[in-house]
Amino acid sequence: MVALLVNLALAADPTMGVGYYREPSLHGDTLVFVCEGDLWTVSRSGGAATRLTTHPGREGLPQISPDGSMVAFAGTYEGPTETYVMPIAGGAPKRLTYVGIGARPVGWTPDGKVVVATRAGSDLPSTRLSLIDPVTAAATAVPLAEAAQGTWAPDGTLFFTRLAAQGSHTKRYAGGTAQHLWSWAGGAAEALPLTDEYDGTSKEPVWSGGRVYFVSDRDGAMNVWSMGPDGTDKKQHTKHQGFDVSSLSVSNGRLAYRLGADLWVLDLATGADALVPITIGGDDDQVREEWVTAPWDWATSTHVSPDGTSIVVTARGQAFVIPHPQGRTVAIERPGVRLRDAQFLDADQLVTLSDESGEVELWTTPKNGVGEPKQLTHDGAILRWTTTPSPDGKFIAHTDKNKHLWLLTVATGDDALLDTGKTGDISDLAWSRDSRWLAYTWPDANRMSRVSVYDTESKVTIAATTDRFRSWSPSFSNDGKWLYVLSDRHFESVVGHPWDAIRSEPFFDASTEVYAIALRAGARSPY
């Protein structure tokens, strides 16, 4: 709330710009951070920031040197992400790494070496640390098989995060790739775990005043914690909820970190915790009016009306009804509302996915743009994926991120759960022309995609294909006698047999074919 109020106060002055601030690095009273893909510097107490880099590519992960004269950072000046160093007062960046697979700085050693994390030279699919001289660019590998972040104590002990961040960004993750903190005394045969008593995440260690400060979600959100060098006496220093704390940097008993879109500084001695009020200047080129020269590149869905006289196009949160061959184009838009996957429900109405209520729900709106929209569903708990109305407009089949398939009866508002995908999302919804049957593709427990058909009259679901072959993309024939599907059932290997020394496996290059399933007894194939 404090961050929001400060940002609103700053934004009230049209001469001041408010940015999205990330990745702070603190040294004394100087703060270097990332905004708009560039590095900026500002006083620890806040104020107008000065841009340090201007390259069109992204610069990030700044790390100020122990003497405060240089800043190491990740840049893309010559293509791949590599580590660079430049004077903190400004100047030409100097490239330190040439590994080509994401070398990123994570700190400095007390004697002025840049600590870089990279998978280059690793015997495992994991990250290792290297120490790079900023003058000569000579690199020395830290003899640890896995290390992604690190900070040194004055006695030479390294406190590090063994694994890099797990890629799903799942909040409160406690799986096998959760980050934990370890310590390693230089030359010791083994590193020691410090946070293995907790299954969740502990990461981003920094050293200050005889303690290791780090980020952990032990109280339900990522906050600042600290512990003794041996992992005991753990203490919590911030108690934010909602946004997670990240990107710790420490200097002279003060700790800078990111919270949401803002930077904060915590006084470790007094516990005083305050947002840094930062403003940025510039030409705001990213918010200037831009002419779209290829509008169709922005279209996210297109659907033809039942009578073929118009199409509805969804683009950038708006829907457009375009007549054929000519006529007035109607724009369906609501200020501050995002529309998705607009389709024709009947001759007069569209059905869309809309976030007007705060959740993604099904709404109808007049296709001529005259009149107010109407909300059809009110129980959205997760992102809804698709909508597929029946040809007669009486039903709307739709799916969501929980792998559910729903059927909404428009007249009554009843929204029934029909099925749940076992290993993935339900997809390929298709109606018969008489609106009685709904076909769809769903993944079975063995991950084979199958086609099922739901009868809206008997409310019975029938499996149309087996779990022994992969089948998908169902479509009803116009006369309703056949259900066409694509299926992988043609297995003729290009390789003669799999036992030659140079022919280690069969290879199927044309396994997918079109198949027809009879829906009525005695049906005779039209082919």
SSE map:
Layout: H1 2-11, E1 22-27, E2 30-35, E3 38-43, E4 47-48, E5 50-51, E6 60-64, E7 70-75, E8 82-87, E9 94-95, E10 104-108, E11 114-118, E12 128-132, E13 139-141, E14 149-152, E15 157-161, E16 181-185, E17 192-193, E18 202-208, E19 211-216, E20 223-227, E21 235-236, E22 245-251, E23 254-259, E24 262-267, E25 273-275, E26 278-279, E27 299-304, E28 310-315, E29 318-323, E30 330-332, E31 339-344, E32 349-354, E33 361-366, E34 374-375, E35 384-389, E36 395-400, E37 404-409, E38 415-420, E39 427-431, E40 437-443, E41 449-455, E42 460-463, E43 470-476, E44 482-488, E45 512-518
Parallel strand pairs: 4-26
Antiparallel strand pairs: 1-2, 2-3, 3-5, 6-7, 7-8, 8-9, 10-11, 11-12, 12-13, 14-15, 15-16, 16-17, 18-19, 19-20, 20-21, 22-23, 23-24, 24-25, 27-28, 28-29, 29-30, 31-32, 32-33, 33-34, 35-36, 36-37, 37-38, 39-40, 40-41, 41-42, 43-44, 44-45
